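seq:
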Amino acid sequence: MKNYIFKTLFLIVSIVGLYLLYTISDGLKNNRYQMFNNRVLDTKTGEVYRYLLSNGSYEIYKNGKKLNVKTLPN
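struct:
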Protein backbone atom coordinates (compact mmCIF):
# COMPACT_ATOMS: atom_id res chain seq x y z
CA MET A 1 0.00 0.00 0.00
CA LYS A 2 2.81 2.41 0.93
CA ASN A 3 4.63 1.70 -2.33
CA TYR A 4 1.47 2.48 -4.32
CA ILE A 5 1.13 5.91 -2.64
CA PHE A 6 4.76 6.82 -3.43
CA LYS A 7 4.39 5.75 -7.07
CA THR A 8 1.22 7.82 -7.43
CA LEU A 9 2.83 10.90 -5.84
CA PHE A 10 5.90 10.53 -8.06
CA LEU A 11 3.68 10.34 -11.15
CA ILE A 12 1.74 13.47 -10.15
CA VAL A 13 4.92 15.46 -9.38
CA SER A 14 6.49 14.33 -12.68
CA ILE A 15 3.48 15.45 -14.71
CA VAL A 16 3.34 18.84 -12.98
CA GLY A 17 7.10 19.32 -13.47
CA LEU A 18 6.92 18.52 -17.17
CA TYR A 19 3.99 20.90 -17.59
CA LEU A 20 5.92 23.73 -15.90
CA LEU A 21 9.00 23.11 -18.06
CA TYR A 22 6.84 23.16 -21.20
CA THR A 23 5.06 26.40 -20.29
CA ILE A 24 8.29 28.19 -19.35
CA SER A 25 10.10 27.17 -22.55
CA ASP A 26 7.04 27.93 -24.69
CA GLY A 27 6.73 31.39 -23.15
CA LEU A 28 10.37 32.21 -23.79
CA LYS A 29 10.07 31.12 -27.43
CA ASN A 30 6.85 32.96 -28.23
CA ASN A 31 7.07 36.13 -26.14
CA ARG A 32 9.81 38.63 -26.76
CA TYR A 33 9.51 40.43 -23.44
CA GLN A 34 9.20 38.79 -20.03
CA MET A 35 8.42 40.64 -16.80
CA PHE A 36 10.35 39.74 -13.64
CA ASN A 37 11.14 41.65 -10.43
CA ASN A 38 10.02 45.05 -11.83
CA ARG A 39 12.26 44.55 -14.85
CA VAL A 40 11.63 43.62 -18.48
CA LEU A 41 13.81 41.06 -20.26
CA ASP A 42 14.13 41.31 -24.04
CA THR A 43 14.49 37.64 -24.93
CA LYS A 44 15.64 38.44 -28.47
CA THR A 45 18.65 40.57 -27.50
CA GLY A 46 19.11 39.53 -23.87
CA GLU A 47 18.93 43.14 -22.68
CA VAL A 48 17.35 43.89 -19.32
CA TYR A 49 15.30 47.07 -19.00
CA ARG A 50 14.75 48.63 -15.58
CA TYR A 51 11.63 50.77 -15.18
CA LEU A 52 12.53 54.47 -15.10
CA LEU A 53 9.59 56.81 -15.82
CA SER A 54 5.82 56.60 -16.06
CA ASN A 55 6.00 57.56 -19.76
CA GLY A 56 7.46 54.14 -20.64
CA SER A 57 11.16 55.00 -20.74
CA TYR A 58 13.57 52.34 -19.56
CA GLU A 59 17.25 52.27 -18.66
CA ILE A 60 19.34 49.54 -20.29
CA TYR A 61 21.88 47.75 -18.12
CA LYS A 62 24.43 45.25 -19.41
CA ASN A 63 26.81 43.66 -16.94
CA GLY A 64 25.77 46.23 -14.34
CA LYS A 65 26.67 49.24 -16.52
CA LYS A 66 24.10 51.77 -17.74
CA LEU A 67 24.27 52.11 -21.53
CA ASN A 68 21.48 54.47 -22.60
CA VAL A 69 17.79 55.30 -22.18
CA LYS A 70 15.18 54.34 -24.75
CA THR A 71 11.49 53.50 -24.95
CA LEU A 72 10.32 49.93 -25.45
CA PRO A 73 8.60 49.31 -28.79
CA ASN A 74 4.87 48.57 -28.78
